[in-house]
Amino acid sequence: MSRTLRRIAVAAAFATLVVGTAQATPASARTGSPIGNLEKVTAVSGGVRVQGWAWDPDTTASVVMVGVAGSSRTTATASTYRADVARSFPESGGYRGFDMVIPATPGAQQVCVTATDVGAGSDKTFACQTVTVVNSSARGNLDGVAVEGEAVKVWGWAADPDATGPVTVRVVVAGITRDLVANLPRPDVAKALPAYGPNTGFSAVIPVPPGTHGVAVTTLNVGPGEDKVYAPRVVNVLDHSPTGAVDPATDGPLGLRVRGWATDLDATAPVQVRLSVTGTTVTRTVTADGTRADRSDAAAFETLLPLGPGAYEVCATALNSGIGRDTALGCTSGAVLDHAPQGALDPAADDAGGLRVSGWATDVDASTPLEVRLTVTGTTTTQTVRADRVRSDRPGSTGFSTVLPLGLGLHEVCATAVNVGVGADTSLGCTSGTVLDHKPLGNLEDATPVEGGVKVSGWAADPDTAGALTVRVTVAGATHDIAASTPRAGAGTAPVAGAQMAFSAVVPAAPGTHTVSAVVVNVGPGADQALTPRTVTVAPPAPTTPDVPGPTNTGVPAGTALRVHNGDLTITTPGTVIDGLDIRGFVRVKANDVTIRNTIVRGRPGLTGYMSLIQNADQANHLTIEDSELVAADPSFYIDGIVGKNFTLRRVNIHGVIDQVKITGNDVLVEDSWLHDSLYYLQDPNYNYTPTHDDNVQIQRGTNITIRNNTMEDAHNAGVQITQDSGVVGNVRFEGNRADGGACTINVAEKSYGPISGTVITDNVFGTGTRIARCAVLMPSTTTALSNVTNNVYTDGVAVTVKRG
Question: Which is nearest to 735 in space by CA: 713, 758, 755, 765?
Fold first, then answer.
């Protein structure tokens, strides 16, 4: 095809596209210059919108479109999908549409659009059109900016061609941003610009802090266009709140004085200042209506807050008038002094000729030494002294000291500091002290008889010395000097100035009753002091036994050969002698005149009821056991040593049983034997599971009973228990024994048989190991009256006395 024919075909196709429909063109004609259609040219805010399609048959790339509106030029590509173009020109691919906005200034603008050619052909410029572009940016006017008190007022009008309602005006001042709505009536604007309607005005009052501030106002654009920024303004906002200050608070007196100043630009009357005392409910409002040399532009205030002595913080607030707010003037601290006298009273002390009273006193209002009035309680004695002495513990000369001429004894002195100026007299309290007699004091607290003498003890003190004292003790005409040289606290009851010194010593004395007298030898002024005497009875020396029964002289003699006898042994032949046996069973004596010597009786296991290692039957008499040992090889709740009547024990060692000797009838002698180490159970079934009632000797019935020169120990209940459980007991002789143990070593119970007669307890030495302290003999007074209890001592030499049971 010729070039002319091709151009005719293109022109025909273009004519078709102008009306908006893309028609197919033979493939042989689809080369050369771009083809297309400029379908729509529309004025928009700030520019011109152009729409259409374009395709260059010589390239698969999108056609570059160039739009010109006046002096503005914009480039875009024809790359949006167009279905109609795709139907008419399938080989184009359909992505050949364009839609672009060419920026333009307001007014009439000629708009031309060109499709840029690629390869053969030339650019395609569509027919140019003329459109009118309007200005769509925000518009308006900032009519004014003014200061109103502590606020800034702005007003004006604002609109936007693209807005469908009131526009926003943004005000920024003093860091505060406020968006206003321009919806107030502005008939003047409506008349000049009716298109924006009657309500385009804005106005606002914005509170700001005092100071110089810039004010920036902007109408915010809607849609295309730009914000309307108004020329900035500067304002100076004055501080309409009150100003002032509070001075350091000072003592009143009788309160806290608070001063300061305050002023207010808006006040037509003096400023009111509210004072508050921190931590209390105390408040006061004062008027700043005075003058101050340092503040000619302000008024002074001053008041006295009635507060008690102490430190305080007072805060002040200036109350606002008109515009502004109350202003805190800050807080001030100060102390209200106690204008009453202050002081203290020292402990009173003995002094030669009276009682020394001292202390200190001061008064903040006094320019000379303070007077202190002293009063002796319970008397009319008074004395006024001056606090004009130097004290190491107090600054200045504020001390006082005087000696009140008082008699011997305990006195209470009260002191009053006499007030000067503001305040009242102050009681300094009372102090007690004793005016001493300088002769010594003391107490003979104890005088106890011991073997060969008397043990004396007590205390002594002399107000004139802290050292040792001499106590002169006289017993039976003999005088002995004892040193009281051991300090101790709290001895005696009488108050003394010197240290209290203990003394203790044994002074010799013969047996008999003696008066023990003691005198404290005076040191310094005064005279010797006699102490209250005591009467004691020194017992004769304890009887001595040439051979105390024990492990070496009781029981089977050492080296004795024994023959074992297994099983119980019953003796029925009178005059039988058992010698040198080791009996592994129980012995029953049913004949008279039986002798058992050099023998051990051990018993056997399997007991279920009471049993004794040796039982002397009622029909048997004159049983003698000597140089033998009774011990339970199988300990039991039910095992005793020997039970019966009419028997003699001599040099017998009995142990490991409950009751070692149980006497049930007349004519019994126990001598030179060792009774010890009874069995004892905390839970004994025979006593309802309470502790065992074990005894060395228990006498249930019988007369003519002698217990002589034995060693008896370790029983828990009693050494000798007389019970009269089954009959009358009488003529019991207990002599020359060494006995200890039990609650009381000898315990006598009369029960229903009445007082026991003929009891002799003599020449015995008792231990001090009883569970009841020093209870050697416990006996009813009715039995004691029928008994002879003499010449018995404890192991420490103290005479035995009967305890009443």
Answer: 765
Q: Give DSSP secondary structure letters for 546-578.
A: SS--STTTSSSPTT---EEEES-EEE-STT-EE
Kindly indicate the confidence band of residue 27, based on its pLDDT and cuts at 50, 70 and 90: very low
How many CA atoms does the CB half-sphere of 17 hold within 13 Å?
A: 31
Three-state DSSP state, 727:
coil
Rounded CA-CA distance 219/225 in Å is 12
Q: Identify the sign of the CA torsion 477, 480, 481, 482.
A: negative
Distance CA 755, CA 787 (A): 10
Burial of 154: CB neighbours in 10 Å, binned 0-12, 13-18, 19+: buried
The single-letter code of the amino acid at 235 is V
DSSP 348-386: PEEETTEEEEEEEEE-TT-SSPEEEEEEETTSS-EEEEE
Q: How many CB atoms lie within 10 A of CB 513?
A: 11
Comparing CA positions, the residue from 365, 435, 436, 431 lying closest to residue 400 is 431
CA distance 82 to 51: 12
List, as one string, the DSSP characters of 94-154.
SEEEEEEEEE--SEEEEEEEEEPP-SSS--EEPPPEEEEE---S-EEEEEEEEEETTEEEE
Nearest one of 476, 539, 482, 485 to 505, comparing CA atoms: 482
Give pLDDT tens digits for 247-295: 999 998 788 999 999 998 888 899 999 999 999 999 999 999 999 988 8
Element (H, E) at 206: strand 199-207
Q: What is the DSSP letter of 473?
A: E
Nearest by Cα to 317 from 275, 271, 268: 275
Asked if 490 contacts 502 with a C-beta cutoff of 8 angstroms, the reply is no
Identify the H or E element spanning 513: strand 512-520
Claim: this prediction has a pTM higher than 0.70: no
- Which DSSP string do the residues of 271-291 spell out, in sequence order? EEEEEEETTSS-EEEEEE-EE
Cα angle for residues 49, 51, 56 (degrees, 5° grid)? 135
Q: DSSP character for 690?
A: B
